[in-house]
Amino acid sequence: CTSIVAEDHKGNLIHGRNLDFGLFMGWDVKNKSWIISEKLKPLVVNLDFRRNNQTVFKSTNFAGYVGMLTGIKPHTFTLTMNERFSLDGGYIGIMEWVLGKRDGMWMSFLTRSVLEDANSYEEAKTRLAQTKLLAPAYFILGGNQTGQGCIITRSRLLNIDLLEIDVKLGRWYVLETNYDHWEEPLFLDDRRTPAMKCMNQTAQKNISVNTMYDVLSTKPVLNKLTTYTTLMQVSEGKLESYIRDCPNPCMPW
Amino acid sequence: QFIPPYTEDCRTDTYPPNGPTFRGAVGWYTVDLDSPPSKRWDAVITEKKTHLVNMIQAIRDLANAFVPSGKLIELVDVTLPIMADTLPSPFSEEIKGIAAVSGIPLGEVVLFNIFYEVFTV
To answer: Nearest Cβ partner of B6 from A198, A242, A249?
Structure first.
């Protein structure tokens, strides 16, 4: 996965993401594609969650999956989640759950609850940072004011790190793939460097929905695992998503 | 660049989406949070049922590739329905509603919904 929150020179926040899934879950030799990734693409849907006939939040989802990986609470915040690998992983959380220790939350149920119930960027950030989880994760959160964009690096129990946009320091965007931002990504899977190169090449003055899509369309940020790209503009309350393909030659991940 | 990781120059002018990296647009559906949790996903699942069944079948095929005896699927179908009852509301009821409308065994719908945690295995 790759998630980016960027602030343009007028202070607008743009949140974009590629949802990559299906690694090592069956390779289709003939079509040079991952089987599960290809089966997920027709299941991609945009959802408008409504209460009292009013939109509460919107999301890009896989039909049948009730949790949230990508969503916007219009004019309030945007949220995506990327997988984080750790030895202290979800299987430990599941074992605890089976053994009756159920004070943690399933990751995508937390994101769904935050999108449904949180009423501000700060409230969303606090809940995502402090709620116990069954599995580690990265939460990438965008708000509706300048500077409101962050990556929350979570272990199952702790909020390990919070990296926020700081335009004065020249950090006009935050970008997360699947590795802790203070460490080098796995050399076999460095999507961060090409993504940041393209963001820096685009520069703050040119960042927009269009150019964010360009960055998310550049290989290997776009790869064989990429099922969809979503672009969200919090101030307009807008979410749009597109099902992707990666023509050969293309990285399997 | 024709060797892995096939890094290319930063793309430009790919929006509006077009060309070989754009497979298609995504449809919109409404989920009414005022309706009972078990009914909220009926419209989505009714329309996407075939694709959902195909995706679950692909996971089944993968599981059987690892455990040809079918015991792994059996384990999922026997134990995960029990886990469904431990999941918090409204997720438990929503997942059961999806299983009912799609006809997919409840355990396999639960597996799909907790896949993030399971995948770390």
So the answer is: A249
